[in-house]
Amino acid sequence: MPESDAGASAPPAAAPLPAPWRWMPVQLLLLFLVLAAIDLACQLLGAHLVHAVPAVLRDAAGLCAALFLSAAMIVAYRSLVRWLERRTATELQAANAARGLAQGIVAGAALFALVYAILWGCSVVTFAGYGGLSGLGSALAVAIASAVGEEIVFRGVVFRRLEEGLGTTIALVISAVLFGLVHAGNRGATWISTLAIVLESGVLLGLVYTATRSLWLPIGLHFGWNFTEGGIFGAAVSGGLNTGLIIAPLSGSSLATGGAFGPEASLAALIVSLCASTALACYVVRAGAWRSKR
Hints:
mainly alpha, 67% helix
C-alpha cells in the first residue's frame, strides 16, 4: 500500500482535553453525575410507563424499560470513557459479555442459594411449596436495572477511578461505604442493613471487578444474587417486596432474617459474602492485581 494511502486511512488523533478535564476527581465527578442522572431518569420513565399500560402488559413494559436502561447506561458509559479518558472501555467489551454475565449469574445464584441453605439449616426459613410465576417478570426487570445501573456507577466509575489514584484498599472502602449509604433510605433499612450492604455487596463486587478488570461478571453476580433472592425465594430485596417462584417464609429475629429489609441483611448472608470476599482478596493479592496508592 502506498504511504499516502496508509496515512489517509488512519483515524485522526483526538485533540487533548484541557488540563482541568484530565484531572481524575473532575472526571470521576462528571462520570458519576451524568451516569447517575441517566440511571435515575430511565427508572422514572420506566415507572411511568409501567403504570400507564394495562395491568396485563406491566411485566413486559417493566422488562422493556429495564433493557432500555441497560442499553442507555452501557452506551453512555462507553461514550463518556472514550471522550474523557481517550480510550476504549475494555471493562465493558462486548466480546466478554456472554461469558462474564453467565459466570456472574451462576456465582450470584449459588451464593444466595447457600444463604438460604444456612437459613433452612437454622430453621429460619420454611419451604412451603410453589409460588407461581406472577412475580417473575417484575423481579427480573428490577434485578436487571439495579445490576447494570449500580455496577456501572459504583464499580465502573467510583471504584475504578478511585483505585487508579488511591489504590485498591482506599477505593474499596470508599466505594463500599457509598454503596451502603445509597441503600440506607430503603424500606426497612437500619444501621445493620446498611453495614451489611457495605460489607457484602460493596466489598464483594469491588473485589470481583478487581479480580477480572471487567464489569460483566459483577453485573452478572449482582443480578444472580438479587433475582434469586426476590424472584426465586420471594424475599424482600433491599426493602423491595417480591412474589417468588418458591413460597419460603422467614421467621425469627431480624438478625437471623434481615427484617423488613430482606435476608441480605441477615447474619447468614454476611457470613457467606465475607467468606467469598476473603477468598477473592487472597486471589487478587496472589495474582498481583491489588494496586497500591500512586
